[in-house]
């Protein structure tokens, strides 16, 4: 029985490097998309927190009185989602030039980070008390991010061991983790600059 493989699917579709040396442009796009997805997730995490402090629901416009007006920076959230999705799909088309790709961690990173927000504010709801709805959302998000992460652990460990035996060693991992960290740091400064608030 043939095992499902994204690499094999890309090769059959003629997407990616298909065994040839990647161009400088494709290498740049591959690494930039890691930075972009990390920044997008970090922006969503930060923008979600002030919204939840307002009760989790905001609005603007309309004929009725609005209890919690939407902040003028709320556009950050849809922009971050669209930008992150675009980076994700571009990354799939570029493939991994060194055989290492941290992009599969985007799904766990997204749901675990947002799940943390739900769990934190469930126990510290605006106005006091306890928010059962946010607790349920938090548990679901942690499961949606944590279960795939646990399932991928064995495969990831085998890839790391194989990479240790390769010529490049763990350098590709170090470079990609540095880009992820840079994306998160950049998102923090961008959010604070636009929204003028901390997380």
- What structural category do the secondary elements indicate? mainly alpha
- Work out the count of structural domains: 1
Helices and strands, in order, run as: HHHHHH
Number of E strands? 0
Q: Largest sheet, described in full?
A: none
What is the overall silhouette? Answer: globular
Q: How many DSSP H or I helices?
A: 6
Rg (C-alpha, Å):
20 Å
Low-confidence stretches: 1-5
- CA(first)-CA(last) distance: 48 Å
Strand content: under 5%
What value does the average pLDDT take? Answer: 84
Residue share in helices?
A: 55-70%
Structure description:
The longest helix has 33 residues. The protein is globular. The N terminus is likely disordered. 67% of the residues lie in helices and 0% in strands. It is built from six helices and no strands. By secondary structure, the protein is mostly helical. It has one domain.
Overview features:
67% helix, mainly alpha, 199 residues, 6 helices
Briefly, what is this?
This protein has 199 residues and is mainly alpha-helical. The chain contains 6 helices and no strands.
Question: How would the blueprint of this fold be written?
Answer:
Layout: H1 6-13, H2 24-53, H3 76-94, H4 106-123, H5 132-164, H6 171-195
Helix pairs in contact: 2-3, 2-4, 2-6, 4-5
């Amino acid at each position: 029985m043939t095992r499902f493989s994204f690499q094999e699917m890309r090769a059959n579709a003629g997407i990616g490097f298909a065994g040839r040396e990647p161009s400088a442009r494709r290498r740049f796009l591959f690494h930039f998309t890691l930075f972009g997805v990390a920044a997008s997730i970090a922006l969503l995490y930060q923008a979600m927190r002030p919204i939840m402090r307002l009760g989790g629901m905001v609005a603007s416009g309309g004929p009725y009185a609005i209890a919690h007006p939407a902040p003028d920076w709320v556009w950050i959230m849809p922009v971050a989602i669209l930008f992150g999705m675009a980076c994700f799909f571009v990354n799939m088309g570029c493939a991994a030039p060194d055989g290492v790709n941290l992009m599969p961690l985007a799904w766990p990173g997204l749901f675990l980070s947002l799940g943390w927000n739900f769990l934190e504010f469930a126990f510290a709801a605006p106005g006091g008390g306890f928010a059962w709805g946010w607790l349920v959302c938090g548990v679901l998000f942690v499961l949606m991010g944590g279960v795939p992460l646990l399932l991928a652990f064995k495969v990831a460990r085998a890839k790391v061991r194989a990479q240790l035996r390769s010529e490049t060693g763990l350098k590709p991992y170090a470079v990609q983790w540095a880009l992820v960290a840079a994306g998160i740091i950049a998102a923090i400064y961008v959010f604070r600059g636009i929204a003028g608030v901390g997380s």
